Sequence to fold (601 residues):
Amino acid sequence: MIKDRNELELGDRWSVEALYASPEIWKKEYEAYQGRSETPRWPEIAREKMHDPHVAASKFAVYFDLDRKLTKLYTYAHLRMDEDLGRDLFKKDYGLITGLLHDLSQEGSWIQPDLLALPQKDFEKLLLAPELKPYQFFLEKIARMRPHTLSAELEGLAALSGKALDAPSRAFGALSNADLVFSNAVDAKGEEHPLTNGSYLSHMRSTDRTLRESAFKNLHKGFESHANVLCELLQGQVQAHLYYARAHKFQSCLESALFPHHIEPSVYKNLIQTVRKSLPLMHRYVALRKKILKLSEIHIYDLMVPLVEEVGGSMSYEQAREAVIHSTALLGKKYQDDVRTGLTKDRWVDVYETPRKRSGAYSSGCYDSMPYILLNYQGTLNDVLTLAHETGHSMHSLLSRRHQSYMDAQYPIFVAEVASTFNEQLLLMELQSKIKSKQEQAYLLNYQIEGIRSTIFRQTMFAEFELQLHEWAEQGIPLTPSLLKERYMQLNRDYYGSEIVLDPELAIEWARIPHFYYNFYAYQYATGLSAALYLFEQAKTSTEAREKYLQFLSSGGSLYPLDLLAKAGVDMRSSVSVDAAMKRFETWLKDLELALEDFLQ
Fold:
């Protein structure tokens, strides 16, 4: 039974009031920083010559201070809107602040091109100026963008297009999270169960195969009923990426997305090639699942159900919270105390699903706030691991903000999934230490294997699909539902092998994946888990490795992502961590076969 938000205990809701005590106080601060009604809103960031370090330092100070204040306003607005995606007040406030941030981006869009228009000697003078030391890495990243920066007028025009180009992503979110309604899922007894984006994964882990099949088919039928609209939204998003790439003289959308972070396209493509070489292991796992579950046919909706029953049943949120806190002891008392305070006293977490709340889970916040964690907690082990996952993100943010300036605190997306998956491994190690039976061993092994299946194999499949979408756009090939369905089904056949039965409903699954709107994001789950597994193995036995890892968490965005990971102890330019993850998958698969040998008789 889903409760209304006002029925929840205070401790089960995140402390948004710590940012602003009320919407009225938020609105007052919004009005204080919104600037003038006409353009320019903020004359103090108007264009000036930037060759003088004093002028540049003053301009940066004003611009980034305003950015910091508006980001705090944005954080409150987006958290409030995600509590209730259908409430007009929160939607209005969110629209106001996103519009203001776009205006700031537009009015500051002259800064980068004007800096790059400086003679090289003047730019180098800025890099060496003492008053610009807080902005040094920012300036270095700008210098890297020299070949891809337009004139100030054209950059202003590009910034002005931001609102329009974001429309497909916003429309997808509104349709998927608020407007789409699905037929109830029906179990083997004929009983109906509410089906939402939030409850879908819970149904897919049910031991009731009839319920799994019904949930799978009914959810995808809901998206199928909007196939043409969803195809056009995705096409609009891809075209936005293509527009930016071509306007800024990149050879491809992939290069455009990776270049600012100093990541070569070869890193992305090597991931796909390395994982594809290990697909026989995935096919072997699918065949094992079919045998253990005693199925004449295995379908996609059979891939998430545990191969053995979970011991101990569901876990209350309070138990989950304590397990997560206890599992972080490996990283030291200070780290563990921060986790305990955040999850209890400071109320980082919004725990349960409520009507019209955003589905899924995330960690959010800003430089001037605590971390905030959105959950839709149902009590499964996956939900417990999700709490550990998002706590990892939150601790990464907390340590980055604690040790870095505003300019360097935001860690790059490429490393974002490392801390989260590292914390999942901490919790799994905690659970494995308490194993009392082969059944428990098999359950956790299966969970670990599923982590690699869903986070490395599946996200790499998404990465391959996303790359194909953008390559079609670059070639001028229009995206149509039939084209997307055909390619998506072929990738599922490649990745899961000949044993899998691909139901026709699977063909529309691409339409419900939000990450396809994020501009080459999904692959980072795979690289993140690979790096996290590699670093975790080092940290288990080495104090030095643990210290390096904590330094990595505290480094924020002060280096390029591959350099951050190299400093922590893993080289992502090579395939070493992905190869190691594939070997770990094979080892776990062998161990699972041994643990389940009684079932195989």
